[in-house]
Design goal:
Order of helices and strands: EEHEEHHEHHEEEEEEEEH
Low-confidence stretches: none
Oligomer: single chain
Helix content: 25-40%
Mean pLDDT: 93
Structural class: alpha+beta
Number of helices: 6
Largest sheet: 7 strands, mixed
Shape: elongated
Strand order of the largest sheet: 5-13-6-7-10-9-12
Length: about 240
């Protein structure tokens, strides 16, 4: 079996997907090294680099690439991704990353699924909070909604499947668990994750640069706050 597959996404993007199905920290490290190499060795017209759990996609301005004298654009971009993979799989560079601390209020007003999670896993609320705040999480990707970070992995004692049917509305800032992952809803939106708390921080703000609070490659820890502190922080600019 090949180590990866590579394919075009329309006429202005190419994706390389590493073979396999598991969320794997070593694959994440390879992808981050690939991203760094591509940023240092861009091609004319390259616009953005988007990470998945096991994939990296490059978008580009088709006219800028062709105007640079390239005839077979897709082939050139694929060659660039293959070169990045050759570097990334053998060189997990220690990349500079931000560590983001996220305040969360874990009371039942905000964590509507805490009682069900406690019952499902045989835990107290205090144990759920301790387990969730006692780890540093990798930000594997940002997706689903602008600013929604997919973080892994939660302690195995916190694992719980998504709801069979999603809620119509999950409030912005809600912190949830789905399987081994934890994440934060940036907007009021439908969602099926098990909600254990809420942060007063804005995960996405179009007036901020960059607009997303957390990016792929960052690490995140959570810390517990009470409702009074939640309300105080929520009022801050």
């Amino acid at each position: 079996m090949s180590e990866y597959s590579i394919f075009s996404l329309g006429d202005q993007a190419v994706s390389l997907e590493i073979t396999g199905h598991e969320i794997d920290p070593s694959v994440h490290a390879t992808l981050m090294s690939m991203k760094q190499w591509l940023e240092k060795n861009p091609f004319t017209g390259m616009q953005d680099i988007v990470l998945g759990y096991r994939s990296i996609s490059v978008t580009f301005d088709l006219f800028a690439v062709t105007n640079s004298g390239v005839s077979n654009v897709s082939a050139i971009v694929k060659e660039k991704l293959v070169a990045a993979f050759a570097v990334g799989k053998n060189q997990h560079t220690q990349l500079p990353s931000r560590h983001v601390k996220i305040p969360v209020c874990y009371n039942e007003k905000f964590g509507m699924d805490i009682p069900a999670l406690c019952e499902h896993n045989g835990l107290s609320v205090d144990e759920v909070v301790e387990l969730h705040t006692n780890k540093s999480y990798n930000v594997y990707l940002v997706g689903f909604l602008p600013g929604f970070p997919y973080l892994g992995f939660v302690d195995h004692r916190l694992e719980m499947p998504r709801h069979p049917s999603p809620r119509a509305i999950v409030p912005a800032g809600s912190v949830g668990i789905a399987g081994k992952q934890t994440g934060i809803y940036p907007f009021d939106s439908p969602g099926g994750w098990q909600i254990i708390g809420r942060t007063p921080l804005k995960m996405f703000d179009p007036h901020r640069m960059p607009p997303v609070l957390i990016e792929a490659g960052d690490t995140v820890t959570f810390f517990s706050i009470d409702e009074q502190e939640f309300e105080r922080l929520q009022k801050l600019p």
